[in-house]
Amino acid sequence: MSDRIYLDWNATTPLRPEARQAMAAAWDTAGNPSSVHAEGRQARRVVEDARAAVAAAVGGRSQDVVFASCGTEANALALTPGLRRTSGEPVRRLLVSAIEHTSVLSGGRFSAGAIQTIKVTASGLVDLDHLRALLADGPPALVSVMLANNETGAIQPVGEVADIVHEAGGLLHVDAIQGFGKIPFEIKSIGADLLTLSAHKIGGPKGIGALVLTEEMQGLEPLLRGGGQELGRRAGTENVAGIAAFGAATKAAMAELPASAIRQQDLRERLEKGLNQTPEIIVFSEHAPRLPNTTLFTVPGLRAETAVIGFDLSGISVSSGSACSSGKVQPSHVLAAMGLDGKLAKGAVRLSLGWSTTETDIDLALEAWRTLADALLRGRRNTA
What region holds the Aminotransferase class V domain (predicted)? Predict the structure, then answer.
């Protein structure tokens, strides 16, 4: 990656050295974590040390962290009918915001008839009044609202959402994958009952995620049944190397979080100052609270696939939004939910920054963008 500029950190991140070292050490651990002999106990220590690191990062308890194969699986595990607090009533329906990741929009194990969609504002934030209305019109609900949007970077008012949901006797699941390692938060401070995380967004490996619960949660039914791993909540031999790397990446990300967030926000402001020199530029969710590293933008007439290819030919990796569409460049359901014109939505381009992004990277990206924008403007003049 040294000869290219990588500005697609919201899709995935490079593997941190700490995570790579933890994986390599775990590969030399011969035992099965469920075995009681010395080798098994050694593997178990690796898993539990990582579990403690993930729990500490979000203010949870180690025994309430459930490792899964990815964030999508962790989301599916969370979206379970019948969840309840120790003394509460089980949830019987699911409310999801219109801008959630597709793994949440699919509804997990709720039937299609039990799922309702919460509207969002033009700024890409959850419509709290619509949430209140939906909660008032039916039995207790599980509500799923992400911490921060993967496309626009808009940080959702999850604290207010939690108050509304709990007052109505419901539960709150927060997909925190995109915010983890970028902004500080804890599961209890944001009012979440269930929290989803993923390693590969913070410098860990792909293929390992986690669901974090509060201690009051009851009724979580496993997706995978078999052995008693993860306290009976997720069967299957643990991915010891992936879990070890997740723990190491978590420690590294938390250690650098405050300074890294400030630096990335400075770089994002530099980027957007340059972008704003282009006539008719639109930066989505510009006036909403956003992740410090994320810019989603367009100009009228731009085609996202053309821009992504143009940046790529200049040696710069960007995206048109979510990376979870099998490589397809397609209109954003997030922008559609925000009420954006379909043509504008088809032209959205996302640049997302990371811990190794430099001012030079930003300046070269702006240079590439100016070339693309000039070509777009010339094309407009030629067809006028």
Answer: 5-363
